[in-house]
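Re: the pair you flagged

First of the two:
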Amino acid sequence: MSSDEGGGGAGSGAYAGMAGRGLWVEEPARRRRMPDPVRTSAVRAVVIVAVTLTQATITFFLTLTGSWLALPMALCAIAGTIVATWGVLDVLITRQMWNQRYGVLSAPSSTARRRRREARRAARGAREAAPGRIPREDGPLAASGPYTTR
């Protein structure tokens, strides 16, 4: 019998409560996993931002040393900043698009259904209680209706 199965080994007293517990214990995730398109754009944005920060750091050190590569690297760092901004905006836009398309599953609760039913009954009762409509002979639609005076 092994020590995992509760055998009477030298250290069995200290681990007596953990005899049936495995090495890997899964815990529920704190947050749900991001949808695939959002995760893809987020990974892309992180890589672009990392490259841009690396470019900016290299540009800084090249500027300190007075190297001729400082100017081309500065231009690349500026272009990288624009691309990184686009990457971050892409994450936000993709996330918003995903939420608008797939985020909300509309299932009205019984309370909402009851309220709508009561509102329809009230509107129907108000229509039935109101007197019949009398067509107006003046107004913007009077000339185009069946009651033309021409």
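Second of the two:
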Amino acid sequence: MSTPVPSTFPDIEAIVVDLLRNRPELGGAVVDESPPAGFNGTQRAVIVSRRGGAWVEDLHVDQPLIELEVYGPDKTSAHVLTNAARAVLLRSRGLALGTSVITDVSEADGPRWQPDFVYAGANRYQCVLRMTVRTS
């Protein structure tokens, strides 16, 4: 008999935004699930999106793939901000947030420079991290 995926599983995007928001390492960057009003791709921002992953029934955990789209006023500052955000997440193993515990974080796709076709002047890096989250 299989166990259904819980309908109240936490919003991993919101958890990651909470982990990254207001961190001194991110130097006042906007951290959210979507770009802020008036965004043109040159502001300091970390946009968080779930890009897949899977519920692992036998372990009763979620293993989301989290994509960070990181922007800065220039390529160098975008890269520095990317590394700062990655470091915060990679250090979040063992962190309990309400009824959820982050049991593992690993890099699925390291930072890469990626043109942005929506924001022509953007300086953007993207990376993907795999998280393992257990909920009680």
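Strands lie at 30-32, 45-56, 61-71, 96-97, 100-113, 124-135.

-B.
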